[in-house]
């Protein structure tokens, strides 16, 4: 916006600033106006004289913001073009195998399957599980379906007769937002030193849920520390 694009009028103790827009050119009544109340006429004249300087400052800030956005886009594109190292590929493969092992051992449900199993009458077939999820009663992990499309699935160890296990909610509340979904799944299915015999939390959900909750609270404290 150049100084010619800005109309400034001093009317008594009110300075009216009206930026140029195409809409203003077509109909003056639709343009935005800004009114600054000036108590001193000398100050208002100083402000009018400062408008070109303010314009330059605004243009500089706009250019800096645009440059930061461009740099972020370039960094992202460069990151996509850099091939992962052999170590990165190996770590990704190991993690993918661990994820697959969890779902293969314990199984998983979709929101629609859980809705059908609970005979949900909601118009949306995901409404029931969405409600559980909002209450932190269950959690989902991203997993590709047969068409390789990523979607959320629910590890089956969270449920008994297709309903949430109460201890799972206490665990999720203990961790809050400090663990990503797949890290939660791996926590449940990995040996834990806080449990008797370093058992896996998933193996004690039914027989000793309190121990599982206490282990989660202790691990959550370590994460937060």
Q: Strand tally, please?
A: 8
Distance, first to last CA: 50 Å
Give the SSE string.
Answer: EEHEHHEHHEEEEHHHH
Mean pLDDT: 82
Radius of gyration using CA atoms only: 30 Å
How many alpha or pi helices?
9
**Can you tell me the number of structural domains?**
2
Structural category: alpha+beta
Order of strands, widest sheet: 1-2-3
Residue share in helix:
40-55%
Low-confidence stretches: 20-25
Largest sheet: 3 strands, antiparallel
- Measured by DSSP, the beta-strand proportion falls in 5-15%
Categorize the overall geometry.
elongated
Features:
225 residues; alpha+beta; 2 domains; three-stranded antiparallel sheet; 8 strands; 14% strand; elongated
